[in-house]
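User: Structure tokens for both sequences below?

Assistant:
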Amino acid sequence: MKVLHASISHGVLDDRIFHREALSLAAAGHDVTVWGIGDEALDDRVHGVRCRQIIVPRGGVPARLKALKGFLKSADTDILHIHEVHSLAMARGFASRRAWKLIYDVHEDFPELIRTFSRRHPLRREITARLISLYERIYAPKCDALITVTPFLSQKFAACCPLIVELRNYPVSRPEYSEKTSESEDKQKLPWPGDCELRIIYAGQISRKRELELALETVELLQSRHGIAAHFMAIGPGDEEDLVYYDRRFRSTVHAELLPPLRHEDVDRVLQSADLGWNILPLHRNFLHALPNKSFEYLKAGLPFIASGMPLLKEVLSKHSVGLLAPQLSPAVIAEQIAKAYRDGYFSEELKQRAVSAYLEDYRWDSEAKKLLDLYRRLEGSSV
């Protein structure tokens, strides 16, 4: 089948859209195109997937929707797979007129995202969130299928859509990610101090919503109060405003580094250089039911992690004993917990092997890819 993934907020090489879903579909023989936006234009085939990326247009969401509409007018596909609530109505119109199957991939609880992080007046924020929620309830049932990432989102849409598949962002493992880099490149990308005793790493979105100040303050306390030569490294993409903000914060301490995003094939190697993964998020309502991708990237690399009390992560830590659960979101408490674990020899090779085993047993993308392909087979069958 011909498949078109379209996103008005992600680049074409997005981890979930490209590296997980599109490559899995292409490997199964589907003709896959990914359309998205980014800092640079792209029109090429990457690992068998046609990638069409335009430079982010000025004018916000309306301009992005206009660009997508222009592309869809000449698109030739059997399945349109969209990734944002904003494009639901337009996508439904095209799917209906062209007899395409339509999939809505729900990456997060968008109304709750507005309530938690929007800078609008509280009343406007609540009105916007409710309107978006209503919009989803109107258009989600008109899709042929929904894909979600957590049980919470699956339950949210269960009453309005009969066909829902939950695909978690477990790590992929493919031959094309096995490139090796030279030892000199390693040193350039991994500036751990020579006297570093405890390496703590964060790989993910660099955003003030993630409150990385907590990690910086924790590392400072590990140094000053507990006498442990700890160092914190954060790696990932972010909005320009947030990157500028954290660049200033990281420059104010000698115990932390802020680095740009990794190539997909470098993730494991870089994570393996650390002792502990940072997976502590503020317990906002939008994060409470989250299942952060980085959790499983850490496990795949054999890296134990410390997490805040999100229910789904509690289950992972309880089942496999592969890390620490922060009792409070307090730098002093977290530093005390990490220092005790370090002195007790907790960060051992045995723990690293347990992390890898947990990934191999329960958290591989292979199992999710099978669910994705099963969904596409069902939609293909219903088209006959």
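Moving on to the next sequence.
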Amino acid sequence: MGRADRVGCGARRAHQCGAQGARRQWQSAAVDPLPRKGVGFIGAVREEPEAAPASSPPPRLSIAVLPFVNLSNDPTQEYFADGITDDLTTELSRIAGSFVIARGTAFTYKGKPIGVKQIGYELGVRSVVTGSVQRSGNQVRVNAQLIDAATGAQLWTERYDRDVSDRFSLQDEITSRISHALRIEIVGAEAARPVDQLDATDYVFRGRASFFGMRSAADAYAERISMFERALALNPQSVDAQTWLAIALAGRALDQLSDSPAVDIARAERLITQALAASPRSYFMHWAKGQVLRAQGRCEEAIPEFEMAFALKPNAGMIAVLGECRFFAGSIDDMIPLQERAIQLSPRDPFVGHWYQRIGVAHLLQSRIEEAIVWLNKARTVNPGRPPPHAYLAAACALAGEAERASAELAEVRRLNGDNRYSSITCLKAAQYWGVPKVRALFEATYYAGLRKAGMPEG
């Protein structure tokens, strides 16, 4: 019996079993979505999907990536469209909790005039990704869309125009940018779905979606932490809830928005220890542990955790945070190129303000004050509720002779900050990790010197 026959039989069985049986089949098929090592492994990809009847809703974060259409006059460009489809299938299967239809099944729809709603019904998925590739000379255009399979509504669309030079690098870049954007949109769409009664998974989705807003103010952290706390209250053994709560607590401390950072960091460490014990091979757990280690000022120890996570699932955020950790460990020249690479891969990332800030800090510490102000202004504009850009701007403006602006930025960072670290140079030095000795010396010569000129007392 061929694949298509097996799929057809599976669909018929789902209808015959009724809602309760179909739910059991979906639950048994929801294999561990965390990435595994090994040739050809593709996470939680469904090899033989069964169409779910209307009374049995599709799994959360269930996705089918349909074959991208080659719109080029040259049929030999089909490989590029298929490559984008393959890579997107792999990348989306690595989203925590995702359920992605396997490439082999999705490709049975290639070239067939079947509507997205029908495909969603047959495969039992909530979202469908479609797209096209068109090459003309040395230019290539890739269009991608995310569609709600139940309604046929277009949830997201984007177009990417690129020069063709190294086609494999081009394919990697486009896939990375599309998959990152889709991750944000899919999680957001799932969080926004109306439900009669929220369960632990619903609260996790809502908390995750709050990370993707272009803000990091104290109220945003309070909202997402509350969501993860509710998830954990409903299911104390939820690894997802433990991990996301640990990330949120560590993030609040790192963004200087916690009233009690030591308490937040200590709890984050306990949570991620529990989560890692339950799922030690997950890239996401290593990423979360790296974030907790960063918050503890243990950047050298965080580097192998981020490198492990990056090896399992490369993405822009990991590139950026690796650059910062290496910077504090003494590899000063790594900071700017890695932030620039992250921005190239994900220019609309919710955390792009952090990356702008790091570039600004690298310029500031190497006494390139004008460049520092440009990048720190960008960071401040993207996320005005985060304290750090204001502090670095206060120092940079003071060094540039802009005394009034420096004083205003210092006042603003004190207003926004959750503790008293900006009351004096002594408190600031004690509040966080400032790197190995040669990096601390750079902070002393530029950042602290600028803050003194801006009006911050010594002790």
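User: Anything stand out in the second?

Assistant: The first strand starts at residue 45 and ends at 46.
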